[in-house]
């Protein structure tokens, strides 16, 4: 089975985290943490920085590994690595999403969010009190 290495980032600002509604591709309409496939020769961190620049036009500041999960989608094994991150900039629009929502982990599944992320969202919920205070941009 083909293995796809994917990274996603939980951007935390003002004690909220960002989720985004996909506007292209197979899973159009689904909500996700922004990110994408890791390209050849890139580290996962580099891939996430690139994806946030490409899609949201912002530079990430801090980046910490949170958790990972494995899921089968369309006969491909998706290996999803999740980071929490901060930025000095606030995203206003996305080239890959039709909607940007600031929410809290307990409300993520009020949206049509990827089932593959359930374990990641649970980890985020457990760590949330600590994380939302830690992930402030460094000026
Ligand atoms: N970005 C992101 N992808 C996720 C999440 N959960 C989840 O199952 N996925 C899956 C959906 C896709 O199968 C895959 C990401 O692939 P993608 O198509 O968005 O990657 P990409 O931005 O590099 O797109 P492309 O250039 O190949 O078109 O990971 C998540 O929270 N964020």
Automatic annotation (TrEMBL):
Superkingdom, taxonomy of origin: Bacteria
GO BP terms, alphabetized: DNA repair; DNA replication
Molecular function via GO: 8-oxo-7,8-dihydrodeoxyguanosine triphosphate pyrophosphatase activity; 8-oxo-7,8-dihydroguanosine triphosphate pyrophosphatase activity; 8-oxo-dGDP phosphatase activity; 8-oxo-GDP phosphatase activity; metal ion binding
InterPro entries, per the entry: MutT-like, Nudix_hydrolase, NUDIX_hydrolase-like_dom_sf, NUDIX_hydrolase_dom
Boundaries of every Nudix hydrolase domain copy: 1-137
Keywords, comma-separated and alphabetical: DNA damage, DNA repair, DNA replication, Hydrolase, Magnesium, Metal-binding, Mutator protein
Known EC number: 3.6.1.55
Pfam families, sorted: NUDIX
PROSITE patterns cross-referenced by the UniProt entry: NUDIX (PS51462)
The reaction(s) this protein catalyses: 8-oxo-dGTP + H2O = 8-oxo-dGMP + diphosphate + H(+)
Span of the signal peptide: none
CC cofactor: Mg(2+)
Family to which this protein belongs: Belongs to the Nudix hydrolase family.
PANTHER family found in the cross-reference section: 8-OXO-DGTP DIPHOSPHATASE, NUDIX HYDROLASE FAMILY PROTEIN
Protein name: 8-oxo-dGTP diphosphatase
């Amino acid at each position: 089975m083909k293995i796809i290495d994917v990274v996603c980032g939980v951007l935390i600002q003002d004690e909220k985290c960002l989720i985004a509604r996909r506007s292209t591709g197979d899973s159009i309409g689904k909500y996700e943490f922004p990110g994408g496939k890791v390209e050849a020769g890139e580290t996962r961190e580099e891939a996430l920085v690139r994806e946030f620049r490409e899609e949201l036009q912002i530079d990430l500041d801090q980046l910490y590994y949170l958790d990972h999960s494995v899921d089968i989608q369309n006969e491909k094994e998706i290996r999803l690595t999740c980071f929490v991150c901060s930025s000095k900039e606030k995203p206003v629009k996305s080239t890959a999403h039709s909607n940007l929502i600031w929410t809290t982990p307990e409300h993520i599944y009020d949206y049509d969010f990827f089932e593959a992320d359930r374990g990641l969202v649970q980890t985020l919920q457990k760590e949330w009190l600590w994380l939302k205070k830690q992930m402030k941009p460094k000026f």
